[in-house]
Amino acid sequence: MFIHDTVTDFTQNYVPTIDYLKDYFKKHSSHFEEYFRYHCHNVDEKMKTAIPKHQEKMPALIEMKDKMPKFIRAIASDYEEMYGITFTKDVHLIVGLYGSNAFTYRQIIPEIAFCIEKLSPLNRHLQIIIAHEFGHALHHLLSEKSGIDWVMVDWDSPFTWLLQEGSATYFSTKVVSARKDEYFAFQEDLEWLTFATNNKQIITDVFLSDLTTLDARSMFREWFSINGGKRFGFSRLAYFIAYELILSCLQELAELDVIALWRNENYQDFIYQQLTKMAKNNV
Fold first, then answer.
1. Digit-coded pLDDT (tens) for 76-98
2. Are 165 and 248 in contact (CB under 8 A)?
3. pTM higher than 0.70 for the full model?
4. Domain ranges within the chain, ordered by starting residue
5. Above 60 in pLDDT, residue 282?
6. Which CATH class is domain 1-145?
7. CA distance 172 to 184
8. Alpha helices of the chain — where are they, by DSSP H?
9. Is 75 helix (H, G, I), strand (E, B) or coil?
10. I need a surface site. Which of 63, 122, 163, 281 has the fewest CB within 10 A?
């Protein structure tokens, strides 16, 4: 595992102009290909609005880029010791345009990127988002180890997204001690957690209903995207459903069997059944 730090270059040479941003992205183009392809659109407009934000956050960028490698190695080591795996794929520390905050690459065993400008500089918040993203990679490594046939995974299914996000959140709770709301927001958001907890049944029921009326893209935007949340006024509620799903499954199955559910041909049916139980408050 190699940690690529493009943030130091950004903070040491920063000039608050669009030309500088373009030069920075071009200079480090190999680290931004995935970012601009999937995680940051409307680039010209976002460059204009990002400049004052970058200037304001510069002290935090410097602070975070110095702390992140240590946190990354410590959390990766904890997972490796806990599960007997090894992380070998690269990690990218970048300064983006306030699109995504972090993501795994679209690979079976993925590389990981952290968009520093979107992160909270508090140590615990950094550790949680690192644990979450490495949790995604761990999910894939353990599934690979279990003998999964990746061809059978439906990557465009909300059931798959639930298993992915639920597993990553579950793993993060095992290596970082934090308030429950922070595992979902990567910062404090007690209002979000209180709403989700108090309305678990109805949220799950509406999610199931939307599965029959919305296409995959609309499901993702409403339930998984920071830009969604029109149903209830809170975005990314699927992350809460996903974590509760994992806890529900763990009442019936061993940990590895839950994490590697998607190796089974009927994994979507099983997840649907668990969600139905959650909606009826049977779990």
1. 999 999 999 999 999 999 999 99
2. no
3. yes
4. 1-145, 151-283
5. no
6. alpha beta
7. 10
8. 7-13, 18-27, 29-34, 43-83, 123-145, 158-175, 180-185, 190-198, 200-213, 216-219, 237-250, 255-259, 267-279
9. helix
10. 281
